[in-house]
Amino acid sequence: MLRVKPTLLVLAAGIGSRYGSLKQVDKLGPSGETIIDYSIYDAIRAGFGKVVFVIRKSIEAEFKEVTTKFSNKIKVDFVYQELDNVPAGIKIPSERQKPWGTGHAVLVAANNIDTPFAVINADDFYGAKSFQIIAEHLTSKRDSDADTYCMVGYSLRNTLSENGHVSRGICEISSNHLLKSIVERTQIMRRDNEIVFKNTDETWQTLNGEDLVSMNFWGFPVSVFKHLEAKFKTFITTNYQNPKAEFFIPLPVNELLNEGNARVKVLSTPDSWFGVTYKEDKEESIKKLNTLIAEGIYPKKLW
Q: What is the CATH number of the domain that holds 289?
């Protein structure tokens, strides 16, 4: 039986304030490739059949220019995460200035996805093996798994920046590799041969470098959209007076877990994550890509 090819949903609507420019289209590869190029290249190799980009109207022209190079190799679609792109019946708070984060970004793509799909950030490098792992999971799911989601988990030590602290969602996982919870830790960094974070009481605590963390690489069936819409409506009602509230993906996922309405399979990957959180990360990312090219993982020119 021919397996349905999964869809890749790329979240590219945000602007990195710490980075200082539109980092989604910054050229890092030797032939002018962006991190997105490597993600799409890996997705095609892993068997994805379509990519949907979540962008904003204000970056549409610049973004589409850098994505035309692979449009003849995989089906490409665009959706727009704007303040007014919300389900019917939702009243937008008058003080709200921007969209509601990654959960909202996934929700705006509901009408453009009809297969199991993976979600990634546009400015994060996830690794070829990670795409293969999640594609295999998405294409092997049975109808009875309609409310079983998945997430690629990275070893914490493989996700740190050399140029500043980061925040990571530390995963608590059951013996059968199901996600129990995600605990957000902030100001994580390497210090004196240890990995530490600053606790809420302002003290520094150590972390295990082998702990699995979420890097926003999720896998969902299309049934997730009905749950997201219901959770988003509740979120808007609850946070109507908070103009800065964010509807991040882990929020509805954690609620569904606690309610017993979903399960999340954690897929461990040997790959190292890297990205361009800080402007200084660009040089290090270029070095890492060149190493992968030298190892034969990628050609010098992708397209």
A: 3.90.550.10
